[in-house]
Specification:
It is a single chain. With 577 residues, the chain is an alpha+beta fold. It folds into 4 domains: 198 residues, no CATH class; 106 residues, Beta-Lactamase (2-Layer Sandwich); 70 residues; 150 residues, Heat Shock Protein 90 (2-Layer Sandwich). Helix content is 56%, strand content 15%. The strands form 3 sheets. The chain has a 6-stranded antiparallel beta sheet. It has a 5-stranded mixed beta sheet with strand order 8-10-11-13-12. α5 runs parallel beside α7 and α16 runs antiparallel to α18. The longest helix is centred in the middle third of the chain and has 56 residues. The chain is elongated, with a radius of gyration of 45 Å. The N terminus and C terminus are likely disordered.
């Protein structure tokens, strides 16, 4: 019964959410259906009254009963098959099917009335319908048509009975004036309600849009955001909170109680202090999870108070991982250190060159083997310092403008084989190195000398951690996609620790004390110049697992001919990370 009743007052479409439908149109549809349902109800009552009168033996009401039955069918037809449409200023087809039918039906009943039955109050329905759902012109037109019909009925009645001539005309005039007043008041009230509804809908739309913007901003924050009431119930969260609190409820954006987990008690204490002191709080807490270990957080709270006092206050809590904060601070320190190191390296370059030159002149005049061993130590360490100075200056120096594409294009397999063979001869590791080239005629976009520096650094790293067994170091190339070449340097060394893997390509990071920690960082910078990708992974070679550094290279724009030199012969300068 309830569902049937609601379906009469509003369509099922209006009960389901439809964001694309105008709310103002939905409001008009609802009012239209209410009026149509009221017409059906009045027609039903009229039919019942006519049946009751006929049952009492008044045969003169047959015509009125026929009018009532016809009116009932007309209202049912409009209610079932007609679709809501705002009336125009003119008396269009919809006016004739609704208001016009009402006026004609009630006029016929008023003309056919017998006994003490008075149908004049029924004219209020079409007047209200036109006033609420239509413009003021249509409302006054309906009131005027009703008044004219009442005056015509009074004139027709006066022709048959002169006794109540004045009374009938006076009653018709008063009724018509009342209908005009009702039309004016109802139309003005409906217009005001419509304006208020439009303002309310505009405010709601702006609030919804602001809420969506706020939600997008909060979801995009790296900080965790919790909105907590005084009872400790989390009303709203963002996705970052699920990661920081290690809970699936926060990730699903559902409500949960903050006091339910023992590990969250430090957050509960900060929340309670916020409500007790009515001031913002800031603290560093540690959340201890038996299964996940501990997590250190920086907590800030703000109190959202209700100005009117009608709503309870809310505690807005901001969570930030202390490890991420320390990482940002460390990055800033590294950047400052890099700028300072570049300045220092630039200042010591000339004195270092003078020391190396003086040592070379001194070494020419020495004959004692012990003295020559000392000058050799000075020369080696001066070269090492010069290499570190060059690396620091290369990192800090602004990126050079890339040469023309023709210079940047080289044949990958030929270049890799030449660089690897020269490196193996220089380091005496030919028996430990295996080169496998499977990228025949592949031309990649890379400057030859930069590729040399890249490969030498990766091979030096592989040699440092590889075993003494044959084929402990492998260099391979392959085509992985049209326009993509892959270079890999593999060694059978032990697995790198996770802490080392996380910082492999960062500047000044090294697992050895006698290294500048710039080698792999420079390799990454070189790859970024040419849009290449460098990475690390554990990989199998046969049955042996080892460390693999791989580089994905882009295709060259202009391949070289076979006669073109790959690069100029330059001495290998190994880079150690």
């Amino acid at each position: 019964m309830d569902s049937q009743f609601h379906s009469w007052l509003a369509s099922t479409d209006s009960l389901s959410p439809a964001p694309e439908v105008d709310p103002g149109s939905q409001s008009f549809d609802r009012l239209w259906r209410v009026f149509m349902t009221a017409r059906v109800a009045i027609a039903t009552v009229l039919v019942v009254l006519q049946a009751f009168i006929y049952a009492l033996g008044n045969n003169a009401s047959r015509s009125a009963a026929a009018v009532c039955i016809a009116y009932l069918f007309a209202t049912l037809a409009v209610r079932i098959w007609a679709r809501p449409r705002p009336p125009r200023r003119a008396f269009d087809a919809q006016w004739l099917l609704t208001i016009g039918v009402d006026v004609l039906a009630f006029s016929a009943l008023d003309f056919l009335q017998s006994g003490v039955m008075n149908y004049t109050p029924l004219f209020a329905l079409p007047v209200l319908l036109s006033s609420v759902l239509g413009p003021i012109l249509l409302a006054f037109g309906t009131a005027a048509s009703v008044t004219v019909l009442l005056l015509a009925d009074a004139w027709w009645t006066s022709l048959q009975s002169l006794a109540d001539f004045n009374a009938r005309f006076l009653q018709a005039a008063l009724s018509g004036s009342g209908f005009f007043l009702v039309a004016l008041l109802a139309n003005q009230l409906a217009a005001r309600l419509s304006r208020e509804e439009e303002r309310s809908q505009a405010s709601q739309s702006a609030a919804r849009m602001q809420n969506q913007v706020n939600q997008l901003v909060i979801e995009g924050l790296a900080e965790g955001v919790l909105v907590i009431d005084a009872r400790g119930t989390v009303r709203s969260v963002n996705p970052a909170s699920g990661r920081l609190l290690a809970t699936k409820d926060a990730a699903r954006n559902t409500r949960f109680v903050l006091t339910r987990e023992k590990a969250w008690q430090p957050l509960v204490e900060v929340m309670r202090r916020t409500f007790e002191t009515q001031t913002a709080q800031e603290a560093e807490v540690s959340l201890d999870y038996p299964a996940h270990g501990s997590r250190r957080l920086h907590v800030r709270t703000r109190l959202a108070k209700s100005k009117s006092g009608s709503n309870e206050s809310m505690c807005v809590m901001f969570l930030e991982d202390l490890r991420e904060m320390e990482a940002r601070v460390r990055t800033e320190k590294l950047a400052a250190m890099g700028r300072m190191s570049a300045a220092v390296a630039h200042e010591i370059r000339n004195p270092l060159a003078a020391i190396a030159q003086a040592n070379a002149l001194l070494e020419e005049d020495l004959r004692d083997p012990g003295h020559r061993q000392l000058t050799s130590m000075v020369r080696q360490n001066a070269q090492r310092l010069a290499k570190i100075v060059d690396e620091i200056l290369n990192v800090s120096r602004a990126k050079e403008q890339l040469p023309a594409p023709a210079v940047l294009t080289l044949v990958l397999d030929d270049a890799v084989e030449k660089i690897a063979s020269e490196w193996a001869v220089q380091n005496g590791t030919s028996h430990r190195l295996q080169v496998v080239t499977r990228a025949a005629h592949a031309a990649v976009w890379f400057e030859p000398d930069h590729l040399r520096r890249l490969m030498v650094n990766l091979l030096d790293n592989a040699l440092r951690y590889a075993s003494a067994s044959p084929q402990a170091i492998q260099v391979s190339t392959e085509n992985i996609a049209p326009g993509k070449g892959r270079l890999a340097v593999w060694s059978d060394g032990q697995r790198l620790e996770k802490t080392v893997q996380a910082h492999l390509f960062e500047p000044f990071f090294s697992s050895e004390s006698r290294s500048s920690g710039l080698g792999l960082y420079i390799c990454r910078e070189l790859c970024e110049r040419y849009g290449a990708l460098i990475g690390y992974q554990r990989a199998l070679r046969g049955t042996t697992e080892g460390n693999e550094f791989f580089v994905v290279l882009n295709a060259g724009l202009q391949p070289l001919n076979d006669q073109s030199p790959l690069f100029e012969a330059t001495p290998l300068a190994p880079l150690k990370s």
